Amino acid sequence: MRHLHLVRVLVGALCALLLVGCSGGRGGGPSADPSASAAASTSPPVSTPAWAKGFVTVTEASLPAEARQTLRLIDAGGPFPYEKDGSTFGNYERVLPRQKRGYYREYTVRTPRERDRGARRIVTGRGGEFFYTDDHYDTFKAVLR
């Protein structure tokens, strides 16, 4: 009987640890998307750079196809389909680390069936940072490349 009680206590403690681990670290600002962690965990492990600490991370391969296309255009230096692509991102929401004006640049990620630019963006930093948002700057995920 005593062993049964011990097993129940251990199972309860294990469940509590699993719940804490699954709900930990919202990273990436006010509300991070837990599905991003699940998508990232299916890809090969990539070490997390210092600039990405505190953010939900996603691998480039786990991003939507349109975001991967935008990254290819950024790597190639364009041409970009939207006039505002490459413009300064002001970080007015203060979700990304604070930097001097002009540090961040933003690029549109095409959203199928949207008539305008939609809500999805890639934001890059001068230090090699890549961030993805699909909710128009409310939250960001650090893109590991």
UniProtKB/TrEMBL annotation:
Signal peptide (UniProt feature, chain positions): 1-28
Source species, domain of life: Bacteria
Keywords: Hydrolase, Nuclease, Signal
Presence of keyword Ribonucleoprotein: no
Compositional bias of kind Low complexity: 31-49
SUPFAM superfamilies, A to Z: Microbial ribonucleases (SSF53933)
Record flagged with keyword Hydrolase: yes
Full protein name: Guanine-specific ribonuclease N1 and T1
Organism, as annotated: Streptomyces polyasparticus
